[in-house]
Design goal:
The chain is α/β, with parallel strands linked by helices and 202 residues long. The protein is built from 6 helices and 12 strands. The protein has helices at 16-25, 36-39, 52-61, 65-73, 83-88, 184-201; strands spanning 6-10, 29-33, 44-47, 78-81, 89-92, 105-110, 121-125, 135-139, 144-148, 153-158, 161-167, 170-173. A 7-stranded mixed sheet has the order 2-1-3-4-12-11-10. A 3-stranded mixed sheet has the order 5-6-9. The chain has a two-stranded antiparallel ribbon with strand order 7-8.
Length: 202
């Protein structure tokens, strides 16, 4: 297990514990991250769900927004779920006042597109690159992707809307795979981190 990649979960708000469990199940060394200096020790990072405006403002407050942008721009693998997807979008269709993104995927997202909290739902989602049965997607005040640029690859759709996207080392889903006990999406991300670490070591 010495070659296990070290993957952080941004622990400012949201379902941090569930991501830590899922990453550990996918054979990564998982740790919560709150400070800029902790970013330097990581091979990859997960941005959890929560409230995207709050996470954005806390990231600025804790001094991690700019270091995060720099690491993502430099090629560090990052995976965002729900609010994390919004954080990784180059553009938000209806941003709240003061809301910033890290960027990394050439896409436009719509916040809370699938409805309010009481309209949350689960649905089977076929995700490109995940073998076997569809992934059970948990959608909680979930965004969807309005449009993607040429550099972004659509991995999944639900009800005619894009709900999973990848661009290079950056992965994002509208839904929460960490809540289902199915760790295949996290395993896909861990594989991305391993591949990137191999390339960097050459």
């Amino acid at each position: 297990m010495n070659d296990a990649p070290v993957i952080g979960v941004l622990a400012l708000q949201g379902d941090v514990r569930e991501h830590l469990i899922a990453l550990a199940a996918a054979d990564a060394v998982a740790r919560p991250v709150r400070r800029p200096e902790e970013l330097a020790e990581l091979d990859g990072l997960v941005l959890p769900g929560g409230e995207s405006t709050t996470i954005s403002k806390l990231a600025v407050l804790f001094g991690v927004m700019e270091p995060l942008r720099a690491r993502v721009a430099a090629g560090m693998p990052v995976y965002g779920t729900c609010a994390g997807m919004i954080m990784l979008a180059d553009k938000i269709l209806d941003p709240r006042s003061g809301q910033e993104t890290i960027g990394g995927i050439d896409m436009i997202v719509r916040r809370n597109a699938f409805g309010r909290q009481n309209e949350s739902f689960e649905a089977a989602v076929d995700v490109k690159g995940i073998e076997g049965d569809p992934v059970e997607g948990v959608f909680i005040r979930a965004p969807w992707v309005e449009s993607v640029g040429a550099g972004a690859e659509v991995l999944a759709e639900h009800a005619g809307h894009v709900v999973a996207v990848r661009q290079g080392n950056v992965l994002a889903t509208s839904f929460h795979p960490e809540l289902t006990g199915d760790h295949r999406v996290h395993s896909l991300f861990v594989d991305m981190v391993r591949a990137n670490r191999t390339v960097e070591s050459l």
